[in-house]
Amino acid sequence: MLPKYHIIMGAIVSLAIYLIFQITFLQLTIIFLSSFLIDIDHYFLYIFRKKDFSLINAIKYFKERRKKWLSMKPEKRKNYKRAIFIFHGIEFWLLLIIIANYINLIWFVLIGIFIHMVLDYIDLIYVNDYLYTKFSQLYVYYTNKRKKEFL
């Protein structure tokens, strides 16, 4: 899903949570920001692959990759490696749950991540792709073995 949709939906859901549960403005802000800033792992991957720090180039790169990816039939996509997005997996979320037991505000980061992931799962269903790609990054790593690099 494109960042602008995460920002828009993150704002709407965060505001609804704020109005329903009467959380503080800080908690609202944390939920909202984490609902889309989780995608910074895409930017980190771009920097790692391209050795380029341009955010604009990173956005263009991922838009082009998404367009190319979605132009392929789902059966053909099976032959290619999936990107590993370190913040989009249960491994990272479990770490945050452990930290949240010591730092209460991290629970609001997890709420924002939950909003983000629900949107990502809706997008994956819409484009007929596998949900595991945004659930376990270790599993993505495991399933990438013996697959071609997607360029």
Detailed description of the structure:
The protein has 151 residues and is mainly alpha-helical. Helix 3 (40-50) packs across helix 4. The protein has 8 helices and no strands. Helices cover 68% and strands 0% of the residues. The model has no long low-confidence stretch (mean pLDDT 94). The chain has one domain (3-56, 70-143).
How is this structure best summarized?
With 151 residues, the chain is mostly helical. It has helices at 3-21, 25-37, 40-50, 55-71, 74-77, 90-100, 106-126, 137-143.
Give a quick set of tags describing it:
mainly alpha, 68% helix, 151 residues, single chain
What does the secondary structure layout of this molecule look like, with pairings?
Elements: H1 3-21, H2 25-37, H3 40-50, H4 55-71, H5 74-77, H6 90-100, H7 106-126, H8 137-143
Number of domains: 1
Main beta sheet: strand number and arrangement?
Answer: none
**Termini distance?**
19 Å
Radius of gyration computed on alpha carbons: 16 Å
Using DSSP, what is the number of strands? Answer: 0
Q: DSSP helix count?
A: 8
Basic shape: globular
| Helix and strand sequence | HHHHHHHH
Helix content: 55-70%
Q: What structural class do you assign from the helix and strand content?
A: mainly alpha
